[in-house]
């Protein structure tokens, strides 16, 4: 199990499934790179998103920082706005309100270094569950 932010440094494969009650289900396959930036880590994922019959190149980026304690990770958007924070323990949970919808996440580190994040998003505009499974990639993997 990870015990500090630096444990996430490196390259990770991502396999993501999206089960959407209001639209087509989807999947994403790609890679996340968590790289030091002097203040913590920059999380950048790239890959192919498939929603129904639509295929799109997708990318997202966040900043991961140490929180008030060494085992708290604070995730922000790249402009510094707070997204969520979680403790480094199995079953860590967090919430993000994006009115009128609510995003709840549960992290699972029991099979570290294989780990996952399960998001449940509910509200009048959204109703889906998104499971992202991560696994380490060798440093020399050319999948980038």
Structure description:
The protein has 144 residues and is an all-beta fold. It has one domain (5-136): Calycin beta-barrel core domain (Lipocalin, Beta Barrel). It is 0% helix and 62% strand. It has strands spanning 10-20, 26-36, 41-51, 54-66, 72-77, 82-87, 93-98, 101-108, 115-122, 127-136. It has a ten-stranded antiparallel sheet with strand order 6-5-4-3-2-1-10-9-8-7, with no helix packed on it. It is globular. The protein starts with 9 loop residues before the first strand and ends in an 8-residue tail after the last strand.
Give me the secondary-structure topology:
Blueprint: E1 10-20, E2 26-36, E3 41-51, E4 54-66, E5 72-77, E6 82-87, E7 93-98, E8 101-108, E9 115-122, E10 127-136
Antiparallel strand pairs: 1-2, 1-10, 2-3, 3-4, 4-5, 5-6, 7-8, 8-9, 9-10
Helix content: under 10%
How do the strands of the widest beta sheet line up side by side? Answer: 6-5-4-3-2-1-10-9-8-7
Radius of gyration: 15 Å
Residue fraction in strands = over 45%
- In this structure, how is the largest beta sheet organized? 10 strands, antiparallel
Q: What structural class should be given to the helix and strand makeup? A: mainly beta
Span of the ends, CA to CA: 25 Å
CATH class: Mainly Beta
Order of helices and strands: EEEEEEEEEE
